[in-house]
Amino acid sequence: MATENNFQAIIAHAKEYGFVFQSSEIYDGLSAVYDYGPWGSELKKNIRDFWWKSMTQMNENIVGIDAAIFMHPTTWKASGHVDNFSDPMIDNKDSKKRYRVDHLVEAFADILKGKGKADEADGLIASMEKFLAADDFVGLKKMIDENKISCSVSGTCNWTEIRQFNLMFKTEFGAVAADNSDDNMVYLRPETAQGIFVNFLNVQKTARMKVPFGIAQTGKAFRNEIVARQFIFRMREFEQMEMQFFVRPGTEGEWYKTWKEERLKWHLSLGLPAEKYRYHDHIKLAHYAKEACDIEFEFPIGFKEVEGIHSRSDFDLKQHQEYSKKKQQYFDADIDPATGKPYGNYIPYVIETSIGLDRMFLLILSNSYQEQTLTKEDGSTDIRTVLNIPAKLAPNKLAILPLMKKEGLTEIGKKLLDECKSSFKCFYEDKDAIGKRYRRQDAIGTPFCVTIDFQTQEDNTVTIRYRDSMTQERIPMSEVKNLVLNAIN
Ligand code: GAP
């Protein structure tokens, strides 16, 4: 309950301080779709940039691409998404109306709540989620029958068995066909990875890459998620940061191990607590996968997946070769010591690292959110809400706060702003009591605040206040920029 309260407090904070808003809120919102506000979009961009830089700048053998969201529909046939990327649904035999099982059960739970049976409703939802997580459709159907959940149209409980429902969104391309055929139909991509696979040879040839090498991409993905209720944890429109690393067959085991370690190191390099991380090795593997694991983080809603590392064999490239009838081979001129001859032509194996940007955002937000009880000089207490976001990811790095809006202080503040703003994002404010201003900066995670006062006019020193310790010290104004740069690099 305490952690659930904490989660609700984080969601409320994210809205109140301009991090995340419900999409189309004035129309009562759109389920599992969110907009990022002024500080949220900065934080999201900083996470994306940090990932991009650590992939494409810190590794000479990884290059980036920016593929389109729309892809040829055959892509998704080849990748297996048309046939296998699905969630459960159920039909009423009398009305012929089709329901997503979660919608049906949720609607029934709402009716129970309306009758004052909130506990029963919550229990039902919890059971449904357990059945869904275990792919136990027989158990779920039994639950629907036992609770006499009926169709809103026919009023009967005459249901089919539960069947799978594809998670991909479809849309029309160009003029809509009069006969409503699927000829112009395209999908909104459910993962960014396929944009990398279909460009494998374009990138390899144009960037003159030699195996082993990687292709990185960040971008939107869309899934018509069946259980989408945990704020930005599971969304219908979200962003992924994926990297496919192409390796020589036979070396995939070592590379899988390397990337599994490297990706956890990336998380820990942000100063995030190691004890809140764990690996979850998959026992049940997808048919093409050789090995797979999740990096899990302890969110307020428990340990959950934030990133996946998958050894995907040559499945995707082979499938695209078969469906496109275009060879997806690479010629490896390196000498194989076993034969003394070049390794020659092969379809590379792939190690994938795939992290959700929104999920990483939630990780940072929930890990940094703190309500601290402070004791004042007179013995009374006060609550300080602070986000101790890693400095390099913070939406604003420095708040410049002239003590008052007068007598030359604003000019000094603006001068410092001009000096720093091309190097990092600053926030300037010269009204309200300074204590109030500090608290507002704490609430949006600004690591440094400097106050400009009358002494600044005399000796060019400012008071710098550190967000996490709340300590303050007097330093020359000329040192501020470097101090912040050191902290964020
Ligand atoms: N290309 C592999 C792939 O897409 P995945 O495990 O389905 O693998 C990778 O997704 C990551 O994308 C997840 O670890 C998660 O962080 C993020 N993700 C997946 N579905 C999501 C959703 N509905 N909302 C937010 N993030 C999601």
Can you give a write-up of this model?
The chain has helices at 2-16, 38-57, 74-78, 81-84, 101-114, 118-133, 137-146, 193-197, 200-206, 252-268, 315-324, 357-368, 409-420, 434-444, 454-459, 480-488; strands at 20-22, 34-36, 62-64, 86-91, 98-100, 163-166, 170-172, 185-187, 213-222, 237-247, 277-281, 291-299, 302-313, 330-336, 341-346, 349-356, 369-375, 381-387, 398-402, 426-428, 448-452, 461-466, 472-476. By secondary structure, the protein is of the alpha+beta class. The protein has a 7-stranded mixed β-sheet. Strands 20-19-21-22-23 form a 5-stranded mixed β-sheet, sandwiched between helices. Bound molecules: glycyl-adenosine-5'-phosphate. Residues 191, 193, 223, 225, 234-235, 238, 240, 242, 305-308, 352, 354-356, 358-359 line the site of glycyl-adenosine-5'-phosphate.
Brief characterization of the structure:
With 489 residues, the protein is an alpha+beta fold. The protein is built from 16 helices and 23 strands.
Helix content: 25-40%
Poorly predicted runs of 5 or more residues:
none
Order of strands across the biggest sheet? Answer: 3-9-10-16-13-12-11
Rough shape? globular
Which kinds of small molecule does this entry bind, naming each only once?
A: glycyl-adenosine-5'-phosphate
Number of separate strands? 23
The first-level CATH class of the domain at 2-71 and 188-364 is given as Alpha Beta
SSE arrangement:
Layout: H1 2-16, E1 20-22, E2 34-36, H2 38-57, E3 62-64, H3 74-78, H4 81-84, E4 86-91, E5 98-100, H5 101-114, H6 118-133, H7 137-146, E6 163-166, E7 170-172, E8 185-187, H8 193-197, H9 200-206, E9 213-222, E10 237-247, H10 252-268, E11 277-281, E12 291-299, E13 302-313, H11 315-324, E14 330-336, E15 341-346, E16 349-356, H12 357-368, E17 369-375, E18 381-387, E19 398-402, H13 409-420, E20 426-428, H14 434-444, E21 448-452, H15 454-459, E22 461-466, E23 472-476, H16 480-488
Parallel strand pairs: 3-9, 19-20, 19-21
Antiparallel strand pairs: 1-2, 4-5, 4-6, 7-8, 9-10, 10-16, 11-12, 12-13, 13-16, 14-15, 17-18, 21-22, 22-23
This protein binds glycyl-adenosine-5'-phosphate (GAP).
